[in-house]
Amino acid sequence: MVINTNIAAQSSARQLSASSALLNKSLARLSSGSKIVSPEDDVAGAAVSMRFSAQINRISAASSNIDNATSFSQTQDGFLQKVGSALDRMSELSVLSQDVTKSNTDRTLYQKEYSTLGSYITDLATKDFNGVSLFSTATPGVTTDSDGKTFNLANANLGAGVYSTATSGDISTTTGAVSALTAVKAAISQLATDRASVGANVSSLKMYSATLGVLSDNLTAANSAITDVDVAKESTQFAKYNILVQAGTAMLAQANSSPQSVLRLLQQ
Fold it and tell me: CB atoms < 10 A from the CB of 230, how many?
């Protein structure tokens, strides 16, 4: 029996320190909801989780881009639908102006409405969406995944010659009405093609959006498996470490009191 070196107390203190560290780590996991409180908890898992998190954020950004592009295309289609109504009326006016029972005065009135509708279509051709032209020769590229790949939107150009020819028609004469009708019919045919292209844009964008949604869900689930703590399992560990700390504290106190028995030997 020795006094200067208390091996039992040193061993108890070391065990108590280790148990306390484990208890604090378990408490940190339960309070944060993450089983990777610091990189040393799972070095490889932390690295993989970091890459997953970055990719998930990029997917979220790409989804936002697709949503905005979908709104852009839907706005295009809404305007084109109105253009279709205007062209329908212009074709009707062109036919009415060819009526042999109509006077030139009547045709002048038809021309006034015709030109007004033409101006309306010309004005729509200049509209934009957040500063981006809705109807031009450009084919905007929309980011569709986390790697920056793009999908080029088919354009709808209301400034094309087929539209300007129709909107500049003159139905104040029978001959002019015949020519205007031919031009309007060509514009209606082009409009049908443009609306089909815009519709295809919307359909494709929605499919890209759905694909990103599936990918994001699965990446999030994989990341959760790496980082999220199992509360039931960790609570069991916490109870275990708590008991070890309490037991270690009691044993350290006992080990510290053992040298006092030397006094009884000296008193004899």
Answer: 12
pLDDT at 16: 78
pLDDT of residue 122: 95
pLDDT averaged over the chain? 89
DSSP per-residue letters across 199-212: HHHHHHHHHHHHHH
Element of type H or E holding 143 = strand 141-143
Question: 29, 42 in Cβ contact below 8 A?
Answer: no
How many CB atoms within 10 Å of residue 65?
19
Contact 93, 171 (CB under 8 A): yes
Q: What are phi and psi of 142, to 5 degrees?
A: -100, 130
What is the rounded CA–CA span in Å between residue 96 and residue 191?
22
Residue range 6-50, pLDDT digits in tens = 677 777 788 878 878 878 888 888 888 888 888 777 888 889 999
Q: How far is CA 79 from the centre of its chain?
A: 26
Other C-beta atoms closer than 10 Å to the C-beta of 189 total 11
Q: Tell whether domain 43-227 is in CATH 1.20.1330.10.
A: yes
pLDDT tens per residue, range 227-263: 888 888 888 888 887 887 888 788 777 767 766 666 6
Helix axes 104-124, 43-96, angle to 10 degrees: 170
The pLDDT tens digits of the residues spanning 73-92 come to 999 999 999 999 999 999 99
Residue 113: is its pLDDT beyond 90?
yes
Tell me the residue type at 89.
Answer: R
The CA-atom distances, in angstroms, between 136 and each of 44, 65, 106, 193 are 50, 20, 36, 15
Most distant CA pair in the chain, distance: 144
pTM, entire model: 0.79
